Amino acid sequence: MLYPQRFTQFTKEHADTVAALLCGLLLFLGWFALHLGWLGLAFLLLPAAYVIGGYDSAREGLTTLFKEKELDVDLLMIVAAIGAASLGLWRREYHLIIDGAILILIFAISGALEGYAMQRTERSIRSLMSLTPDIARVLLQGREEEIPISQLKVGDEIVVKPGELIPTDGIILSGYSTLNQAAITGESLPIEKTVGEEVFAGTLNGYGALQIKVHKPAQSSLIQRVIRLVEQAQTEAPPSQEFIDRFEKRYAKVIVVAGILLATLPPFLWGWDWETTIYRALTFLVVASPCALMAAIMPTLLSGIANGARQGILFKNGAQLEKIGKVRAIAFDKTGTLTTGQVQVFQVISASEYTQDDVLKTAVSVESSSEHPIGKAIVQAARDLNWVSAIQVQAIPGQGIVGIAQEQQIIVGNAVFVQQYVINLPEKLREIAQSLELEGKTVVWVARGVEVMGVIAIADQVRSQAAATISRLKKLGVEQIVMLTGDNQETAQSIAKAVGIDRVYAQLLPEDKLDVIRRLQQQYQTVAMVGDGINDAPALAQASVGIAMGISGSDVALETADIVLMADRLEKIAVAIHLGRRSQLIVKQNIVVALGFILLLLVGNFLGNINLPIGVIGHEGSTVLVTLSGLRLLK
To answer: Is 299 helix (H, G, I), strand (E, B) or coil?
Structure first.
């Protein structure tokens, strides 16, 4: 029973190839029968070759004709083949039946080859679908039970053993391991993860067992969003393909009209005999069909989308792959995009009678009770120190925090707030604080009792690859690179200087960012916006190409953007632009090749230098060549 099942599966997976092989076999036997003069057997075998080889094309062509009232290229091929066979029967020149069968055979072989070529792109994209397991190991009342991923609920605790795929996004409750995130983010090196850190569905667990808490529905996981967006990208035709589709429908009608004229006028105008006239008209239907032109765009763009997905760049549709290659100006959000969005202690400066550790231990005693990002940064900086938690802690929003530690009052906050509690602010510390603030740092004063102990400079961390990315974009010829931020001018200028951006727009509201993008579009036409937050969403939507950070980005930014950087790696923007430009170059090359073949074959037909099989080989050969050319972007 196993072999019939395998045969059935093989025929389903390779139906086009099987049809082409059968068509070829019947064609050969029919030709051999004609050669021996067995007309009855030949007339039995050759129609079977026509039916088996041309069934799919005829069905698609007739469906398009009756349902959409449009002529299809497939139908033109079938008409040309049947016309050749009819001419052969009428003139009793049976080699013309063979010519028609060869047309159908080559068309079937071409269809099979194109199918395999596109399957390669399809496999590269569909490989995303296999990144999540079907089941998860859930802890229920202390026991492990396997349940389908679709049944997971927020709050469930799951166990992932070494070497297993993470089934859904979650937060690590216990355990330590390295995770290979290459399939999701394009990062080749494994990332270390421990308690409190987020893990993503589809990433591969390393050597450690992990207990993970589900913090969002399985269908909202990063990989599921990626899969939905890639599926959407495959079904949406970019503007260039839509133009080619519209052109093909009009062009097919022109071919039919021209074919009818070529089949009727030459005997009256140039004295051609009817056999030559009809034969060349049929050849014209074949060589003038725009199959290669139709294949010039989508294989290339789908290959580019697959290539980008492998590198952690998610294009939501082919139109964005086209547009990113034409970008002349780029606007970057600051916080969370050029910077990590996670503040950290930059520097600790102590008064002469104290040490830096004294300042940190005092500050963390009250900040350990705070949920403010600055408080968390101070706690992180003091993690290796021994300190005592303060009591009676009270936070004053926008100013600071106070508490009691070791029977002394602790005050941490801005200069105006701390000044209310101390005798004076040391002049030397004032000068240092002012200098740090001019550099864009946030300065926190620390006092115990009535004495100032020192200051702590807090800064947002610039992404390590930001400066190299800006430099690379300039080398690629991007004419204008600007930074947009709601932060103050000093901080913005400091970050811009560090990464190499010359033009800064600071203290912007979301609608202000939108206005800047519009002004840039008036000057540079195609403008990209890179952002991560809810406040970036309007600008991302307005930009010609919106680019969102996949990990740190908000859901609104991810939904609004056209391209998502899965690993938050800014250098992938330059890769995306290069991919977009390369796709445009290949598309242009393909269009030139397709039109060149059509023109060459038309001239050859009118000069009488090609017959129907040669015309088919040239026509279908150019289609396969253009399709394979588009697959170069998979590399």
So the answer is: helix
What's the Rg (C-alpha) of the chain? 34
What's the first-to-final CA gap in the chain, in angstroms? 41
What's the mean pLDDT in 83-87? 75
Confidence check: pLDDT of 4 > 60? no
Residues 193-244: tens digit of each pLDDT: 888 888 888 778 887 888 899 888 777 666 666 556 555 544 555 566 566 6
Question: 476 is written with which tokens?
Answer: 């690629």
The single residue listed with the structure tokens 């604080």 is: 433
Alpha carbon of residue 238 to chain centroid: 14
Rounded CA separation 258/589 (Å): 28
Please state the φ and ψ torsions of residue 202, each to the nearest 5 degrees: 90, -5
Pairwise CA distance, residues 473 & 479, whole Å: 9
Sheet of 480-484, strand order? 313-315, 563-565, 545-549, 527-531, 329-333, 480-484, 503-505
How many CB atoms within 10 Å of residue 429? 20
In residues, how long is the chain? 635
- DSSP code for 334: I
Q: Which tokens is 405 given?
A: 């530690």
pLDDT at 8 (0 to 100): 61
Active site residues: 333
Angstrom distance (rounded) from CA 62 to CA 591: 27
Residue whose token pair is 């690859």: 465
pLDDT top residue among 473 and 631? 473
Beta-strand ranges (E) seen in 499-609 are 503-505, 527-531, 545-549, 563-565
State residue 239 phi and psi, 5-degree precision. -55, -40
Q: How far apart are CA 171 and CA 268, in angstroms?
A: 82
Number of neighbouring beta carbons within 10 Å of residue 551: 17
Taking 90 as the threshold, does the pLDDT of residue 595 lie above it? Answer: no
Beta strands 210-214 and 157-160: pairing type? Answer: antiparallel
Enclosing H/E stretch for 482: strand 480-484
Does residue 148 register a pLDDT over 80? yes
Both structure tokens of 480 = 């204008």
What's the whole-model pTM score?
0.65
Neighbours of 137 (CB within 10 A): 16
C-alpha dihedral sign at 543, 545, 549, 554:
positive
Which structure tokens are listed for 619? 């026509």
Angle (nearest 5°) at CA 420 between 418 and 372: 35
Question: From CA 334, how far away is CA 491, in angstroms rounded?
Answer: 10
522 pLDDT higher than 80: yes
pLDDT tens per residue, range 284-295: 877 777 777 777
Mean predicted confidence (pLDDT) in 98-107? 75
224: CB partners within 8 A, 6+ apart: 132, 201, 218
Residue 188 pLDDT greater than 50, yes or no: no
pLDDT in tens, 615-627: 777 777 787 788 7
Q: Do the beta carbons of residue 458 and residue 441 sit within 8 Å?
A: yes
